[in-house]
Amino acid sequence: MAQPTLLAGDMGGTKTLLAIYSLETDGLRQQHKQRFISSEWPSLEPMLESFLRERPDAVGAPTHGCIAVAGPVRNRTARITNLPWQLDEQNLALAAGIEQLELVNDFGVLIYGLPHLNDEQQVVLQAGVRDDGPLAILGAGTGLGMARGQTTSEGLQALASEGGHREFAPRDEREWELACWLKGDLQVDRLSIERIVSGTGLGHIANWLLQKPEAAAHPLKGAARDWREHQMGDLPALVSQSAAMGDPLMQQALDIWLAAYGAAAGDLALQELCTGGLWIGGGTAAKQIDGLRSDTFLEPMRAKGRFKPFISDLAVTAVIDPEAGLFSAACRARMLAESSGRLA
Prior knowledge:
Number of domains: 2
Mean pLDDT: 94
Strand content: 15-25%
Number of strands: 14
Low-confidence stretches: none
Distance between the termini: 8 Å
Radius of gyration: 21 Å
Order of helices and strands: EEEHEEEEHEHEEEEHHHHHEHHHEH
CATH class of the largest domain: Alpha Beta
Largest sheet: 6 strands, mixed
Structural class: alpha/beta
Shape: globular
Strand order of the largest sheet: 9-14-13-10-11-12
Helix content: 25-40%
CATH topology of the largest domain: Hexokinase, domain 1
């Protein structure tokens, strides 16, 4: 029996990546990929039809597929954040002409790819021993994504999470002061973890520090005001750049952010008892890899009282592949093909 090809997708409100993978002896190999502007299409079905119709002649038609979507998936349907699209697995499979297609949340799908990442796709943050226990991942981007995975009789199963919206718990006086200020600045009664542990959160931390009297003449004052009041510019990127150039106040902002991130990672590890491994993903992982490998991140992660030895023994890894979501969707498609008997 010929090995089938697999359809993988990673779609969001701005862009959608679609790809076809083949299964080689050394793993999955991407044969064809195309990038689409999501808003230029009325729905995902015609996009899929166009992608498959225009694939190279040498690339076979896929039999199974998985598409990661920016939104929750319930009862095999999904509504996309920032797009007026309602997706249905059966309708998409019919449009693509494939046997089976599965929709998975775009962060949760990473669980399926984690065991198969190669050395170029990840960086070890803390060496440890993995077993067949639960897996967990969190990743700071615009928000803070979390997901967990559990091995079942049918293979690895991803479990969705909204853990990034748990209450932020200040660990010291400085974080308490930050939390109180941020509640007032955002005019909220409750502060979630992702308000601080995210790319946006790094901007909030810097903005807080820039309000202090000693920062009155700081060169980022104007950029922080434009970012906060008019949603202009990329303050988090400016913070990272300034810290790298030796700005002590922006280095302080980055250190506060890394410490809070590490503490959140350790909390997730305790919650999930992820002896199968803990991964750090999201859009900031590759950009902040030096910080993630430092004690500024790792020590707060490990500082869990009586459970410090447990956390210290976990394998902790950063995902640095910008196409990890697409690759993970292909891994899930392979699982679907295997369960159907398509793969020997």
